Amino acid sequence: MSGLFGDASARAAGRAGRVVSLRVARSERAPSILAGGLITCRAAVSSAELAAQQDIRHAVFVAEQAVFQESDHDAHDDDSEVIHLLGRYAGDLAGAVRLFPLDHAEGLWQGDRLCVLRPYRVHGVGAPLVRCAVATAGAHGGTRMVAHIQAPNVAFFVHLGWHAEGDAELYVGLPHQRMSIDLPSPDVGARTMRELSAGIRH
User: Fold this and answer.
1) Which region holds residue 107: left if phi is over 0, alpha if psi is between -120 and 50, else beta?
2) Name one Pfam family in it (predicted).
3) DSSP letter at 122?
């Protein structure tokens, strides 16, 4: 299983040339204007949105953290069942996360590739993205979600209701902790998705 769920909720430089770099530049010029902005989380649907989530991941996992040398794209990204979520702060693209079913019969889902661009980490975008991933998996009939969390972010996930499972393990040379959470019912998950799509304030 792939990991990197929660890597960047505490650590992203934008990649020049596309949407992400433009958004980062704007936020760095006028951070005070963004204070108290609306946070929205919803699925990436259009080709532009799907490209944007890949740009955000590249900015964090390749350009900033150097976890991957050229790209973090893997086979899951080509799976039609994968759901990519985008987080926005005050209308700006700010973060991303993906989720996918591991076992439909058992209702088991996995979340990974959580990342938030550097200028937005002080605005609390990470937690709504995790909540949206959990809600989305529940709305799709899942009953449990697992993730592999980088060690510095375990406490953050515990605060969100996740539980550690087993011992720490290495993924791409970094210590990760397998964690899990029970998913909400489809009705509750769908309601939370609507709330996060409409937006919340940090």
Assistant:
1) left
2) Acetyltransf_1
3) G
| Structural domain containing residue 101 | 19-201
Report the CATH number that the domain containing residue 81 is assigned in CATH. 3.40.630.30
> Is there a domain that residue 55 lies in?
yes
CA 164: distance to chain centroid?
19
Whether 129 and 99 have beta carbons less than 8 Å apart is answered as no
Q: Cβ–Cβ contacts within 10 Å for residue 41, how many?
A: 29
**Assigned domain for 11 exists:** no
User: Alpha-carbon torsion 65, 29, 23, 129, what sign?
Assistant: positive
**In a domain? residue 169:** yes
Output the tens digit of pLDDT for each of the chain's 202 residues. 345 665 544 333 333 333 333 333 343 434 434 557 999 999 999 999 999 999 999 999 999 988 888 898 989 999 999 999 999 999 999 999 999 999 999 999 999 999 999 999 999 999 999 999 999 999 999 999 999 999 999 999 999 999 999 999 998 888 999 999 999 999 999 999 999 999 999 7
Predicted TM-score of the model (pTM): 0.84
Number of domains in the chain: 1
How far is Cα 83 from Cα 100, in angstroms, rounded to an integer?
6
